[in-house]
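Alkaline phosphatase
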Amino acid sequence: MVDLIGTDANDKLLGTFSEDWLIGLAGNDILDGKGGDDTLSGGDGKDILRSGSGDDLAYGGAGNDKLFGDAGNDSLVGGTGRDTLNGGADDDTLSGGEGNDKLFGGDGADLLFGGDGNDRLRGGEGQDALYGDAGHDKLYGEMGDDQLSGGAGNDTLYGGEGNDTLSGDFDGDPEFGNDYLSGGNGDDRLEGWDGRDTLEGGNGNDVLIGGEDDDLLDGGDGNDILSAGYGKDTLIGGVGDDGLSGREGDDELYGGEGDDRLIGGEDDDLLDGGTGADVLRGGDGNDLMFGGDGNDEMYSGEGIDTLYGGAGDDRLFGGSLGTTIIYGEEGNDFIQGNSDVMIFDGGAGDDILFGGDDPFGISTLNGGEGCDFVRGLGGDDVLFGDDGNDWVIGDGGDDLMTGGADADVFVFETANPFEHDTITDLRDGADLIRFSADFGASLDEWGDLDTNGNGVLDDADDRVSLSNGHTVIDLSDEFGAVAGTHTITILGITDVSATDISFADVFWGC
């Protein structure tokens, strides 16, 4: 064991294999502790400190110093200046101090603190913890399950191999920066905190969390979970079955490849499922949603939402409040409304469309191309079958019903008072009006309408009147109500015959 104190000149101090104290003082000194648990202090100047084997403590002091830990659990402190610290083997603690420092943990579970300045920290092998602190720092976790925190400043963090945890800033740090976080391989957790941050999960099943400002989150490969913060964030799921959720702010969510789940959050969001069987939920705000390829489920929330199903057999649902606009697009889609105002277009394919059951709601439903089932339910609805052999069902409210091209069926299943339905385009020999067995007790055959038996509906029938080239069927007596309470008006037709109306139990099918 020796205690060596240098001079103000350039000294070289060599320890023993016991517990030594080496103090360089001023000058560009070389200190070598060799073996044992040593304490080394470089002092002023550009010093080189080699602690050697053992659990050593080394202080660089002022100047641009180089500190080497070697074997053992060492503590290296750079001090002021641009220092280089290398922990070597085992579990080391490195602190850069002031200046733009370079810290290398080496093998073992190391703890690295950059301190003030623009520092570069490398964990090496083992489960390391890296803290950049103040300055624009670069942190590399490398091998092992590492923990990286950038601290104040615009920091860059690379997790490397292993299941890493990356944080752009310290929790509670008053000076946040715009950080870049890359998880690398492994199942990583990335948190941006404040600042405009970019988070990339890389390979593995990662968790990415934005912060206060406008962040970019990219999950990469794997089944990732992405959560926006309080800014206008962009979330990209990438490859895999991902879960993306907005929060406050007008967020953009892109599922990418795989079966993804997207939730919009509180404000006006854009959701794009990408390929795969995705589930999209709009949340609050005026949202724009694209299902993309695949058989998707899409749910409108509150606000004025617009949904595009895309390719595939999709299921699309309107929200409980506000206005919902839905385009089924390609595929055999199912569309269900539940909003105050609904505008639905089934698009290509054999689609099923239901309006909402709110008696005060307003629906406009268009089946589009294909063999469609269009049902208004409650409220005053505008219903279009469009191209194909369609079924158009009004149900409650005053409904306007148009079959469109091809052979269509206008269905009246239940009789309710105070309804006034209108058929705009009944074509003789092509379209059909169907009354179900549940419609009314006194309406189950042609003779219940053609009461004079002449084969057509005209003014001589008890329940029929012709007005301005239209046929009006009055079924108010089904409720014991006064005339005009429940009517069906067939526009442009005055010769409705038995071939135009059916009372048989036929069912929709394509």
